[in-house]
Design brief:
Elements (H helix, E strand, L loop, with lengths): L3 H17 L18 E2 L11 E6 L8 E6 L2 E9 L2 E6 L10 E3 L2 E3 L6 E3 L5 E3 L8 E7 L2 E5 L1
Antiparallel strand pairs: 1-10, 2-11, 3-4, 4-5, 5-10, 6-7, 7-8, 8-9, 10-11
Protein backbone atom coordinates (compact mmCIF):
# COMPACT_ATOMS: atom_id res chain seq x y z
CA UNK A 1 0.00 0.00 0.00
CA UNK A 2 1.27 3.46 -0.89
CA UNK A 3 1.19 5.50 2.31
CA UNK A 4 1.90 8.83 0.59
CA UNK A 5 -1.34 9.01 -1.39
CA UNK A 6 -3.69 8.42 1.59
CA UNK A 7 -1.81 11.03 3.62
CA UNK A 8 -2.24 13.62 0.90
CA UNK A 9 -5.89 12.64 0.46
CA UNK A 10 -6.50 12.88 4.22
CA UNK A 11 -4.94 16.34 4.32
CA UNK A 12 -7.08 17.47 1.41
CA UNK A 13 -10.25 15.99 2.92
CA UNK A 14 -9.57 17.57 6.32
CA UNK A 15 -9.06 20.96 4.70
CA UNK A 16 -12.14 20.54 2.53
CA UNK A 17 -14.29 19.42 5.45
CA UNK A 18 -13.17 22.40 7.50
CA UNK A 19 -13.87 24.87 4.71
CA UNK A 20 -17.08 23.33 3.37
CA UNK A 21 -18.70 22.64 6.71
CA UNK A 22 -17.86 26.02 8.14
CA UNK A 23 -15.82 24.15 10.70
CA UNK A 24 -12.94 25.89 12.30
CA UNK A 25 -9.45 24.89 11.30
CA UNK A 26 -8.32 24.98 14.88
CA UNK A 27 -4.65 25.50 15.44
CA UNK A 28 -2.31 24.43 18.18
CA UNK A 29 -1.26 27.06 20.60
CA UNK A 30 1.43 26.41 23.14
CA UNK A 31 0.08 29.12 25.39
CA UNK A 32 -1.57 27.70 28.49
CA UNK A 33 -5.05 28.94 29.32
CA UNK A 34 -5.19 32.26 31.11
CA UNK A 35 -5.93 32.58 34.78
CA UNK A 36 -9.68 32.61 34.08
CA UNK A 37 -11.65 29.72 35.44
CA UNK A 38 -12.17 26.96 32.93
CA UNK A 39 -15.63 25.46 32.51
CA UNK A 40 -15.38 21.65 32.66
CA UNK A 41 -16.85 20.70 29.33
CA UNK A 42 -16.20 16.99 29.22
CA UNK A 43 -16.97 15.25 32.54
CA UNK A 44 -16.59 11.74 31.05
CA UNK A 45 -13.20 12.40 29.51
CA UNK A 46 -10.43 9.87 29.61
CA UNK A 47 -6.66 9.74 29.02
CA UNK A 48 -4.31 11.46 28.60
CA UNK A 49 -3.69 13.82 31.47
CA UNK A 50 -1.46 16.85 31.38
CA UNK A 51 -1.45 20.44 30.26
CA UNK A 52 -4.39 21.88 28.30
CA UNK A 53 -3.69 23.43 24.90
CA UNK A 54 -5.76 26.21 23.38
CA UNK A 55 -6.91 24.90 20.04
CA UNK A 56 -9.32 27.58 18.88
CA UNK A 57 -12.02 30.06 19.70
CA UNK A 58 -15.34 28.76 20.98
CA UNK A 59 -17.17 31.26 18.75
CA UNK A 60 -15.73 29.54 15.67
CA UNK A 61 -17.59 26.28 16.35
CA UNK A 62 -21.38 26.54 16.12
CA UNK A 63 -23.60 24.64 18.54
CA UNK A 64 -24.17 21.27 16.88
CA UNK A 65 -21.00 21.70 14.84
CA UNK A 66 -17.66 19.95 14.73
CA UNK A 67 -14.11 21.00 13.99
CA UNK A 68 -10.57 19.70 13.83
CA UNK A 69 -7.40 21.03 15.37
CA UNK A 70 -4.02 20.28 16.90
CA UNK A 71 -3.13 19.89 20.57
CA UNK A 72 0.43 19.03 21.55
CA UNK A 73 1.16 17.97 17.96
CA UNK A 74 -1.84 15.59 17.86
CA UNK A 75 -4.81 15.97 15.58
CA UNK A 76 -8.04 16.18 17.55
CA UNK A 77 -11.69 16.55 16.60
CA UNK A 78 -14.16 18.61 18.62
CA UNK A 79 -17.96 18.62 18.81
CA UNK A 80 -20.03 21.35 20.49
CA UNK A 81 -23.35 19.82 21.62
CA UNK A 82 -24.46 22.83 23.71
CA UNK A 83 -23.59 26.48 24.12
CA UNK A 84 -21.17 25.95 27.04
CA UNK A 85 -20.08 22.37 26.34
CA UNK A 86 -17.48 20.81 24.05
CA UNK A 87 -16.22 17.25 23.71
CA UNK A 88 -12.98 16.20 22.04
CA UNK A 89 -11.48 13.00 20.67
CA UNK A 90 -8.19 11.79 19.27
CA UNK A 91 -8.80 11.97 15.50
CA UNK A 92 -7.19 8.57 14.88
CA UNK A 93 -9.73 6.10 13.49
CA UNK A 94 -9.87 2.97 15.63
CA UNK A 95 -10.07 0.74 12.55
CA UNK A 96 -6.86 1.38 10.63
CA UNK A 97 -5.38 4.57 12.05
CA UNK A 98 -6.48 7.07 9.40
CA UNK A 99 -7.43 10.59 10.51
CA UNK A 100 -11.16 11.22 10.84
CA UNK A 101 -12.70 14.52 9.72
CA UNK A 102 -15.68 16.60 10.87
CA UNK A 103 -18.94 15.80 9.10
CA UNK A 104 -21.71 17.90 10.63
CA UNK A 105 -22.52 16.36 14.01
CA UNK A 106 -20.30 13.34 13.33
CA UNK A 107 -16.77 12.41 12.30
CA UNK A 108 -15.99 10.33 9.21
CA UNK A 109 -12.98 8.29 8.21
CA UNK A 110 -12.01 8.92 4.58
CA UNK A 111 -10.11 5.63 4.27
CA UNK A 112 -12.73 2.96 4.91
CA UNK A 113 -15.95 4.86 5.66
CA UNK A 114 -16.34 4.48 9.42
CA UNK A 115 -18.59 7.11 11.00
CA UNK A 116 -18.42 8.18 14.65
CA UNK A 117 -20.99 10.04 16.75
CA UNK A 118 -19.82 13.53 17.72
CA UNK A 119 -21.59 13.44 21.09
CA UNK A 120 -19.92 10.35 22.51
CA UNK A 121 -17.39 9.09 19.92
CA UNK A 122 -19.29 5.82 19.44
CA UNK A 123 -19.27 3.96 16.13
CA UNK A 124 -22.29 4.70 13.95
CA UNK A 125 -21.08 2.58 11.03
CA UNK A 126 -17.99 0.44 10.54
CA UNK A 127 -15.69 -1.20 9.79
CA UNK A 128 -14.42 0.41 13.04
CA UNK A 129 -15.72 -1.40 16.12
CA UNK A 130 -14.31 0.74 18.94
CA UNK A 131 -15.19 4.36 19.74
CA UNK A 132 -12.77 7.24 19.31
CA UNK A 133 -10.51 7.95 22.30
CA UNK A 134 -12.15 10.71 24.31
CA UNK A 135 -9.91 13.53 25.49
CA UNK A 136 -10.32 16.11 28.22
CA UNK A 137 -11.85 19.27 26.76
CA UNK A 138 -12.91 22.50 28.42
CA UNK A 139 -14.04 26.01 27.71
CA UNK A 140 -11.66 28.64 29.09
CA UNK A 141 -13.21 32.04 28.51
CA UNK A 142 -13.36 32.38 24.71
CA UNK A 143 -11.10 29.38 24.08
CA UNK A 144 -11.55 25.64 23.62
CA UNK A 145 -8.79 23.75 25.41
CA UNK A 146 -7.86 20.10 24.99
CA UNK A 147 -5.43 17.92 26.91
CA UNK A 148 -3.61 15.66 24.47
Amino acid sequence: MDSEKPAARRSLLLGTAAAAGGALALSACSVSPSGSSAVPADPGASAPSGRPFRIGKLSDVNVGGSATGKANGKTVVVFRPEDRQVVAYDATCTHAGCTVAPAGTNFECPCHGSTFNGSDGSVISGPARRPLLRLTAAIDGDWITVVA
